[in-house]
């Protein structure tokens, strides 16, 4: 369960994407949100890994 692209950010000549995914804590079972800013090509890899 993850949101893919939330915002596309322009930083000088680089295109960056901010991605947010929901991660379930194995200890408590609560969900937390993890955010990351990365190039658009790496978003699918980042969301797929646990």
Lay out the secondary structure:
Blueprint: E1 2-11, E2 14-24, E3 31-38, H1 43-48
Antiparallel strand pairs: 1-2, 2-3
Q: Helicity, in percent?
A: 10-25%
Number of helices: 1
Rg estimate, integer Å: 12 Å
Number of strands: 3
Distance between the terminal alpha carbons, to the nearest Å? 11 Å
What's the arrangement of strands in the largest beta sheet?
Answer: 1-2-3
Task: Report the structural category.
Answer: mainly beta
- Provide the low-confidence segments as ranges: none
* String of helices and strands: EEEH
Strand content: over 45%
Shape: elongated
| Nearest-integer average pLDDT | 82
Q: How would you characterize the largest beta sheet?
A: 3 strands, antiparallel
Molecular structure report:
This protein has 50 residues and is mainly beta. The chain is 12% helix and 58% strand. The chain is built from one helix and three strands; from the N terminus they run βββα. It has one helix spanning 43-48, and strands at residues 2-11, 14-24, 31-38. The protein has a three-stranded antiparallel β-sheet with strand order 1-2-3. A hairpin with a 2-residue loop joins β1 and β2. The model has no long low-confidence stretch (mean pLDDT 82).
What tags apply to this protein structure?
50 residues, mainly beta, three-stranded antiparallel β-sheet, 1 helix, 3 strands
